[in-house]
């Protein structure tokens, strides 16, 4: 579905700057909906001035919705929208007629309509729909509505009150988390029950009216270092912004929206949210991740130590089957160590298998050179991407066994490694032009390891074509059908 900005671009004659201005309001107007207990609907004039088009709609989280059906893309003829027309012509907030309806009756008459000017010209109107009974409101609701009225007045004058920086991402407080009203000097006029609870958990024992919020936050933080001036300005209600404050007792996030009337600043709305538990959980996760990575690092070190001991033992033995078996064990231990090393450097339990592939190939070349075998030319195509450790470890073992066999035992001159990944299925193919072998009668330990890992841990498929039955190479690889003697393919789900 097209975005509402693209719809405005095709249905209106608004300029790019005017569309961007409206986008900025809509991106953050849930604050207005929550403070006013209202559904808000943005109407824009169609390009031919025949009527009004609904570009956006937001529902409040503090009150029941009035518009159960989504009105976006609805059209209201100009003759059926006198309230919208009056707001457009006058540039002032216009009250709607109680009980009337717009257009064909799909949309009710709004409670009031707020013009949205840009650079002195009204480019849209914002209709407010609310079903609350203003005669039965408590102090909290009155504070909400009073702040909302000031913000609507700012929008009607072209003084954009919104503009969240997004610095706190998902931790940005909302109206229901806690609201504080500040006067023009930054002193607390009113604090909602949720806001007072958050401040108490932060360490501010008695957030009394008349005290400066910024000063109280600094005092409760009990820190000797300089507090971020921008954060203090936001807490004082001087600028619009978001900040986080921490103390020995807790952590809170604040969002400040300065309020202004025609005469100048009249204070600010500061939203407060207690994120102490969230930050503790984040620290616990970071600590757990660091511990897991340290474990992988130590396992890697231990495996490398085992490999070094096996290598020393192999050097003391004469050339032959026993020495070759020890060197094969060194390679297998080293392969597992490579996976743990990658996990020790990666967040989470996933690794870049392309990097492991390159390092296994380098290890295989070294192993072939150590046994005084000719090192074949290796060609690598395709990409594995990131794989979970549960797949990466057995797949690396399988890959190492196949490559080591091609380099050490088949006397191959050329080896081609190909990988393909389609959705969640990975296929690894290794082909060589060595002496080949009979898969039906081969009983080597390496082949047994490969078959066991593919069947039991990877739950994949193993296909071996050898002694001239390979389907390799792909077009353009430079190897003919007759030149290839062995192809091993493994396919598994990741």
State the end-to-end CA separation: 32 Å
Strand order of the largest sheet: 3-2-1-8-7-4
Shape: elongated
Structure annotation, total helices: 13
Radius of gyration computed on alpha carbons? 35 Å
Q: Give the overall average pLDDT.
A: 80
Percent in helix: 25-40%
Assign the CATH architecture of the largest domain.
Answer: 2-Layer Sandwich
β-strand percent reads 15-25%
Name of the CATH superfamily of the largest domain: Histidine kinase-like ATPase, C-terminal domain
Unreliable stretches covering 5 or more consecutive residues: 468-482
CATH class of the largest domain: Alpha Beta
Which structural class best describes the helix and strand composition?
alpha+beta
- Number of structurally distinct domains: 3
> How can the largest sheet be summarized?
6 strands, antiparallel
How would you briefly describe this protein structure?
This protein has 494 residues and is of the alpha+beta class.
Can you tell me about this structure?
There is one protein chain. The protein folds into three domains: 142 residues, 2-Layer Sandwich (Beta-Lactamase), CATH 3.30.450.280; 106 residues, Beta-Lactamase, CATH 3.30.450.20; 215 residues, 2-Layer Sandwich (Heat Shock Protein 90), CATH 3.30.565. Helices cover 40% and strands 24% of the residues. The chain contains 13 helices and 20 strands. The strands form five sheets. The chain has a six-stranded antiparallel beta sheet with strand order 3-2-1-8-7-4, sandwiched between helices. Strand 9 and strand 10 form a beta hairpin. Helix 9 packs antiparallel against helix 10, helix 10 packs antiparallel against helix 11 and helix 11 packs parallel to helix 12. The chain starts with a helix and ends with a strand.
